[in-house]
Amino acid sequence: MTSVSDMTSVGGRLDRRARPTAGGPTAPRRRPRLGRQVARWLFVAPAVIFVLVFFGYPIVQNVMMSLENYTTTTFYTGEAPWVGFANYVTVFTNPLFTTTVINTALFTVGSIVCQFVLGLGLALFFKRHFPLGGFLRSLLLLPWLLPLIASAAVWKWILDQGSGALNQFLGLFGVSPVPWLVSPSLALVAVIGVNIWLGIPFNTTILYSGLQAVPEELYEAASLDGAVGWKAFWHITWPSIRSVVGVVVVLGVVYTLKVVDIILGLTGGGPANSTQTLATWAYQNSFVQFLFGQGAAVSNVLIAVSLVFALVYLSMTRKEVDE
Amino acid sequence: MKNSRVFAALAGAASITLALAACGSGSSTASSGGKQTLTIEDYYTSTYDPLYKDCGQQVGVNVNPVHVAGAALIAKVLQQASSRTLPDVLMLDNPDVQQIAATGALAPLKDFGVSAPAGDVPGVVNAGTYNGQVYGLAPVINSIALYYNVDMLKAAGITPPKTWDELKADASKLTDASKGVYGFAMSNINTYEGTWQFLPFFWTNGGDEKNINSPGAQQALQLVVDLQNNGSMSKSSVTWSQQDVNNQFMAGKAAMMINGPWQLPALNGTKGLNFASVPIPTRTADQQIVSPLGGETFNVPQTGDKTKMGLAAKFVNCLNTPATQVKIAGISGNVPAQESAAADWAKSHPQVQSFVETVKTARARTAELGPKWPTAATAIYTAVQNALTGKASPADALQQAQAQNK
């Protein structure tokens, strides 16, 4: 709908500008310039329309929704009474808000740190060329290729307390069954663990391509000066891939903040809300309890946090261009 | 050149408009041979199609059944409500009826002269009623009861428990930690399923969703916590769905479980499993069991086409006649909503006897709070989870729950 009206408004602007010049004596000379301008707009139009329709409209709608008493009734009548910041007050004063913020922070930091360290380790490992290296590296992408819901279901079975594969394995060493998804203090650890497994391919792939871009000559020159092993990594590799590292971390944070499916599949936010994050809580509010206004308020908090990291990312990539 | 480019852009816009218009007119009335066609939307499978056809014939319409995956139904209904493309007959899970009726998307059945069949259990009428008007009728209903492994109870020399004390004692006796067998299993998961399973203890002992924290509710929650803490119930129950509970029972890892009649086909299909069921134990022997009422209602959405809505109401009426109720019970394993039909049904199907008994006094989850039930339901399962994981004592957990129940 919106796309159609935008298209016609572009057309309308064209008509208004074209008309006065049509009969004028200078028309032949001015027309090409005007035409060029119109053409320029037309080239920009698809991008502008795309951003407005698929990003602008939903975000504005979400902000509006968070300021309204948006219920199931709204779907039928279209009426959503304006309530100002009442939804935000309800959300912020809910004791669950603090829990979800802490869980989101732990989940994000835990996932990112481990994903990055393991991903970098694997990328450095695969940088050395060895037989079957390429094959093994492609196997590493596996977590990425599996549908998330399927992965979650399999992990739920692996982590089961009574009959799970992990506890059966640990049992061989005399470890008594660990309540991975049952104990509120362990469930978040287990969920972070699965998310790390899921995020390693992304980190390894991007960091590996960053490592490929470091010129081999640098290492040769450094080795002549005696910089090998750790020293070579610290003085050559790290400074060379720093911008890639920034991108990986910032994108990782944004991707991790919004994780819903893996948590819903594993624990549904439980037990006793111990794995409830802002993202799952927003889902729970909107689609389970039908409190769409409050759900929108929670997700706006999430959008604001993500936006901060997106701006960091933008300024980082801009610096890179400037350099 | 440039003009042609502009023209192409406008032509593109026009074609989008046309495409959108084409989408909008998708649900036009299709009639063959002068007969109207009713679209029926449910989350069942095609096993219901012959029944729909039978009722279609009685009403004089063609039927077009659309089966949606269970979890997606409400989202689809909301989307259809906003785009005014609701089906002619809509099936809803009974706790959702008031929620959808409150939007105005459903028509009161009285408008078409349809009312609940005489003799339906009172819970059914309550579940389908919003603001004093009946919007939906459930042909078959269910609830939950206590299944037990006959062989295990015989080996332990006990009879099925009738009170909470007996339940605790029996569950403890039936537990064999060395074999990984628990005496008792139920679902305490963090979804409405967990609430549904806790309700019989909660309601029977005087618990009330308007004031979750009451002495009766504390006793009920204490019972579940005791069952877990004395080792009779697995700590994993906070992650088990009812399906998981049934799997534990079928695998012989639980001697007793709380579950519904929809598990009967799976249970009957398990070789070597000798099972039976009784109504869920109450705290004292003289208490009357109050279980939640389960089952799906059929409703007539406001489609704007009065003729078709009238036919849809007749169709809903046909589905709810005792004769059809019994047919649906045969397909689903549930209990006919009419008491006398249910009593007859229990004679020929002794396995559902305990459910027939239970549904007589079953209560609709939305009976008190209506569309506000989801908030209370969330608060209740959260309290159960907090108590079972040791995050709070039963009294504190219920107090926190009541604070959230607004």
Task: Provide a quick synopsis of the model.
The complex is a heterodimer of chains A (323) and B (406). Chain A has helices spanning 2-22, 27-66, 72-77, 86-93, 95-127, 133-139, 142-145, 148-158, 165-171, 184-212, 216-224, 230-257, 261-266, 278-288, 292-322.
How would you describe this structure in keywords?
heterodimer, A: 323 residues, mainly alpha, MetI-like fold, 78% helix, B: 406 residues, alpha/beta, D-Maltodextrin-Binding Protein, domain 2, 2 domains, 5-stranded mixed β-sheet, 4-stranded mixed β-sheet, 17 helices, 47% helix, globular, disordered N terminus
How is the topology of this model organized?
The complex is a heterodimer of chains A (323) and B (406).
Chain A: H1 2-22, H2 27-66, H3 72-77, H4 86-93, H5 95-127, H6 133-139, H7 142-145, H8 148-158, H9 165-171, H10 184-212, H11 216-224, H12 230-257, H13 261-266, H14 278-288, H15 292-322
Helix pairs in contact in A: 1-2, 2-15, 4-15, 5-10, 5-12, 10-12, 12-15, 14-15
Chain B: H1 2-24, E1 37-42, H2 49-59, E2 62-67, H3 73-83, E3 89-93, H4 94-103, H5 122-128, E4 129-130, E5 133-134, E6 136-137, E7 140-141, E8 145-149, H6 150-156, H7 164-174, E9 182-185, H8 192-204, H9 215-229, H10 242-250, E10 254-259, H11 264-268, E11 275-278, E12 296-299, H12 306-319, H13 322-332, E13 335-336, H14 339-348, H15 353-359, H16 373-388, H17 394-404
Parallel strand pairs in B: 1-2, 1-3, 9-10
Antiparallel strand pairs in B: 3-12, 4-5, 6-12, 7-13, 8-10, 8-11
Helix pairs in contact in B: 2-12, 8-9, 8-16, 16-17
| Helix/strand/pairing category of chain A | mainly alpha
Give the C-level CATH assignment of the largest domain in chain B. Alpha Beta
**N-C termini distance of chain B:** 65 Å
Q: What is the CATH topology classification name of the largest domain in chain A?
A: MetI-like fold
Q: Give a count of the beta strands of chain B, DSSP E runs of length 2 or more.
A: 13
Residue ranges of chain A: pLDDT <50 for 5 or more in a row? 1-27
Instruction: Tell me the CATH topology of the largest domain in chain B.
Output: D-Maltodextrin-Binding Protein, domain 2
DSSP strand tally of chain A: 0
Helix count, DSSP H or I runs of 4 or more residues of chain B? 17
